[in-house]
């Protein structure tokens, strides 16, 4: 242990992160004030965005909340944004924060039901291509009516359950007792090989599911937050929104599902890995034991969770309340009728969601910097200055590029506001306005799958408990999303350019 205060500071700064990583973050913090003084706030703002993306890319070295938070605290001190602007951004996105606080915790209390259902699917379907297609289709369907983060939380919960069972059995532990899932020290060589293959298997299913949330989320008014925003500005109801977007969303959905099957069949970009037979045997044995030993109280718990899931779907589908409040309803119903009264058991349900919630607040601080420094304004002005027939395609590309490095809700908000103002000023017809609105919606939803920070569901997956367990890093997510990015982004651009 270091004996001096300087040594203790160097050791404690960003904890167990590699020394080179600590040095890079320290250089960022020293460099930014110098850049602000020499190059100005706009150039420094773009540098800050790149630096924050770097912290996301190194999420497995250090959780991005700490280094990203330091960068944004410095940005506030340098007056690149203000606490008031950040607070306004948080107020605007409060439904998303509320969703993370309560909906993810609500999904935690449904984990027995999710594990039961997904175990039946996982063990009942031996074809990996069909299994991947089912994950993608189910994610797309659910995301068209539910929130993508909710669907992602369901997939993550099931994957963690599968991984935990096999890891504990392979380590010689009780599969139903808590153990250190991040340590492989107790595994033999044979189990290590199976575990690596199982990790690759789960990675592919997680990525198919995450992409499915984008494929379904673009289609409907409630699929993504920016869809609701755009639909409100346009005055579109649910069916009208679907029909307006369908010329782009439906071909992309079909192409995305075909891509899913081809990736598994051709075993490209990290896909195609099968479940090891020994892992299947372990999961099958545990499922059989659980079925045989299930008590009346456990059967009641499954029934309560199933009814709560039905209530969840109905409430979300009818938009009876904000998603986060519906999540709180699920927590109350399940805990009240399954005998969960311990404060500590309740607290564990919030462990997965709260770090990401805090990180999302930091992410919105980056958005506040972008907003205050007007980093996107020149690009917006350039697109709107183009000839009318070129605007949809370029607007789609501009939205896709910016959404891949920023918040797609923020990008959609800025663009639809500027385009609507141009329409109100008489610069375009209603028909052209609707075409541009579809281009904005699809542009912020489809190409943004290129990076984890482009989609909240992808970012949630990257920073979730399952990502380090299955070795799903930022770079690997970008690589595995690349074929989807090319197909979805390219076909979406072609449809916007030629079919609208």
TrEMBL record:
Location(s) in or outside the cell: Cell membrane
PANTHER family noted in UniProt: NA(+)_H(+) ANTIPORTER NHAB, TRANSPORTER ARSB-RELATED
Summary of the function given for this chain in its UniProt record: Na(+)/H(+) antiporter that extrudes sodium in exchange for external protons.
Reactions accelerated catalytically: 2 Na(+)(in) + 3 H(+)(out) = 2 Na(+)(out) + 3 H(+)(in)
Entry protein name: Na(+)/H(+) antiporter NhaB
Family statement: Belongs to the NhaB Na(+)/H(+) (TC 2.A.34) antiporter family.
Ranges that cross the membrane: 20-39, 46-72, 92-109, 121-142, 148-166, 300-319, 325-341, 353-371, 477-496
Keyword Ribonucleoprotein: no
GO MF, one example: sodium:proton antiporter activity
Matches recorded under NCBIfam families: PRK09547.1
Any single Pfam family the record assigns to this protein: NhaB
CC annotations in GO: plasma membrane
Keywords carried by this UniProt record: Antiport, Cell inner membrane, Cell membrane, Ion transport, Membrane, Sodium, Sodium transport, Transmembrane, Transmembrane helix, Transport
Originating organism: Pseudomonas mosselii
UniProt key word Transport: yes
Membrane topology designation: Multi-pass membrane protein
């Amino acid at each position: 242990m270091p004996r001096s205060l300087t040594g203790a500071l160097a050791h404690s700064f960003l904890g167990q992160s590699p020394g080179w990583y600590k040095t890079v973050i320290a250089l960022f913090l020293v460099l930014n004030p110098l850049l602000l003084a020499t190059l100005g706030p706009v150039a420094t703002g773009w540098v800050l965005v790149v630096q924050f993306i770097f912290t996301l890319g190194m999420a497995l070295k250090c959780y991005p909340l700490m280094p990203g938070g330091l960068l944004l605290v410095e940005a506030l001190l340098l007056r690149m944004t203000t606490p008031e602007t950040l607070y306004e951004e948080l107020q605007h996105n409060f439904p998303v924060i509320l969703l993370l606080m309560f909906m993810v915790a609500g999904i935690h209390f449904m984990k027995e039901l999710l594990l039961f259902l997904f175990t039946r699917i996982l063990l009942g379907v031996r074809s990996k291509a069909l299994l991947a297609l089912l994950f993608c289709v189910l994610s797309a369907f659910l995301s068209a009516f539910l929130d993508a983060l909710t669907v992602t939380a369901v997939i993550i919960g099931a994957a963690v359950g599968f991984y935990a069972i096999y890891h504990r059995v392979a380590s010689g532990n009780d599969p139903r007792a808590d153990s250190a899932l991040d340590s492989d020290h107790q595994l033999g060589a044979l189990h290590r090989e199976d575990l690596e293959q199982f990790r690759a298997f789960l990675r592919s299913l997680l990525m198919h599911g995450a992409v499915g949330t984008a494929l379904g989320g673009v289609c409907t008014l409630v699929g993504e937050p920016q869809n609701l925003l755009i639909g409100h500005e346009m005055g579109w109801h649910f069916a009208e929104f679907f029909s307006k977007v369908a010329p782009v969303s439906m071909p992309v959905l079909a192409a995305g599902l075909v891509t899913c099957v081809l990736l598994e069949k051709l075993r490209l970009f990290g896909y195609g890995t099968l479940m090891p037979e020994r892992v299947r045997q372990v999961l099958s044995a545990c499922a059989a034991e659980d079925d045989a030993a299930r008590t009346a109280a456990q059967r009641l718990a499954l029934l309560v969770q199933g009814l709560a899931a039905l209530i969840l779907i109905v409430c979300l589908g009818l938009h009876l309340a904000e998603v986060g409040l519906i999540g709180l309803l699920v927590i109350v119903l399940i805990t009240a009728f399954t005998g969960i009264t311990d404060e500590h058991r309740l607290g564990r349900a919030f462990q997965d969601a709260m770090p990401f919630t805090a990180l999302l607040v930091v992410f919105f601080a980056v958005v506040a910097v972008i907003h205050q420094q007007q980093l996107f304004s020149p690009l917006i002005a350039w697109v709107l200055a183009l000839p009318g027939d070129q605007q949809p395609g370029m607007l789609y590309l501009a939205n896709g590029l910016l959404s891949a490095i920023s918040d797609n809700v923020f990008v959609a908000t800025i663009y639809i506001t500027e385009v609507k103002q141009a329409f109100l000023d008489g610069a375009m017809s209603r028909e052209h306005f609707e075409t541009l609105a579809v281009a904005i919606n699809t542009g912020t939803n489809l190409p943004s799958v290129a990076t984890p920070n482009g989609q909240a569901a992808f970012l949630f997956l990257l920073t979730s408990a399952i990502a380090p367990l299955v070795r799903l890093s930022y770079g690997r997510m970008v690589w595995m999303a690349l074929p989807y990015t090319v197909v979805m982004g390219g076909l979406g651009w072609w449809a916007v350019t030629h079919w609208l």
